[in-house]
Structure formats: structure tokens, C-alpha cells
């Protein structure tokens, strides 16, 4: 019951903040049930509004205090409408040196807006697909973390650049 109330509260707050965001072009979250399995891919299908303007791209993560690492590794793949694929392995900080989790949030859920790409022009018309997968490893271990705990949602955001 408490979790449902908290989720409803976060939904209302996010609606208030996103509805007042003129730079937002695309902003979608996918929930991660329980733990994020290393083979689980979060997919976003994106129809870009035009092929002339530049946009900034972000990966958004929501995590709880259960997240025990100071960073996160992600494999992000963008598939273009005509089949070209760009794949990146990215690392982001998730905690400061003292271990305090980074991100915005008043509860035990923190939201992190992480830069992915800047000034991207979507030249091809059609649907783009963005796939995001966790690629965490523990120090000294070859195999990856099979089930990553503490990540509750993965999002992808496209924004119009802020005009100066």
C-alpha cells in the first residue's frame, strides 16, 4: 500500500514537472521488475518529429538505496531506420566518494539524468530504436552482475537544446 501511494505521488509530481517542460520531445520510462537481469534489454521506439533540428539525448535512471555500486556501465545501441547501428559502452557515476547516491529525489528513490549524445540530427526519416542493457561487473570478477538490484526504471529522453 505504501509503495502504491509513493508511486502515485511520484507519477503526479513527474506529470507536473514534465507538463511544464517546453524542451521535452520524447521522455519515456520502462519499469524494471525486481532486478535488472544482464540479458534484459530495455527498448524504446522513437519517431523523431523532424530531420533538420539538433537534439540532446539522455538516459534516465531511477534507483533506490538498494543500489550498491558507485557507478553503472550500460550498453546503449541506437538502430537507425535504414538498419545502421551505433553501439556504445558507457559508464556513469551513481554515488559520490563517500557512497552517497547521486540524483534528484526526496525519498529513497533517486532520479539520474545522464548525458548520452549532444546535438544529434536525426537525418533518416522513420522509426529509431534505442536498446539499453546493464553491463555491470564487480572488481576482480570476469563474469558480469547477473541480476542488478536497485534500478527501478530506465528512461530515454530527447530534448531541444536550450537556446542561449
TrEMBL record:
Lipoprotein in keyword set: yes
Keywords: Lipoprotein, Signal
Signal peptide: 1-19
InterPro entries the record matches: Motility-assoc_lipoprot_GldH
Recorded superkingdom: Bacteria
Any matching Pfam family: GldH_lipo
Protein name, as recorded: Gliding motility lipoprotein GldH
Source organism of this protein record: Mariniflexile soesokkakense
Amino acid at each position: 500500500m505504501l509503495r502504491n501511494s509513493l508511486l502515485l505521488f511520484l507519477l503526479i509530481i513527474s506529470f507536473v514537472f514534465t507538463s511544464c517542460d517546453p524542451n521535452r520531445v520524447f521522455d519515456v520510462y520502462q519499469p524494471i521488475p525486481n532486478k535488472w537481469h544482464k540479458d534484459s534489454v530495455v527498448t524504446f521506439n522513437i519517431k523523431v518529429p523532424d530531420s533538420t533540428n539538433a537534439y540532446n539525448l539522455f538516459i534516465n535512471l531511477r534507483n533506490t538505496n538498494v543500489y550498491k555500486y558507485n557507478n553503472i556501465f550500460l550498453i546503449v545501441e541506437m538502430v537507425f531506420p535504414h538498419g545502421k547501428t551505433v553501439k556504445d559502452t558507457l559508464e556513469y557515476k551513481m554515488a559520490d566518494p563517500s557512497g552517497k547516491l547521486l540524483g534528484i529525489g526526496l525519498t529513497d528513490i533517486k532520479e539520474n539524468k545522464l548525458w548520452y549524445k549532444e546535438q544529434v540530427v536525426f537525418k533518416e526519416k522513420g522509426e529509431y530504436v534505442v536498446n539499453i542493457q546493464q553491463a555491470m561487473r564487480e572488481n576482480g570478477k570476469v563474469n558480469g552482475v547477473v541480476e542488478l538490484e536497485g534500478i527501478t526504471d530506465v528512461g530515454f529522453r530527447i530534448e531541444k537544446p536550450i537556446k542561449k
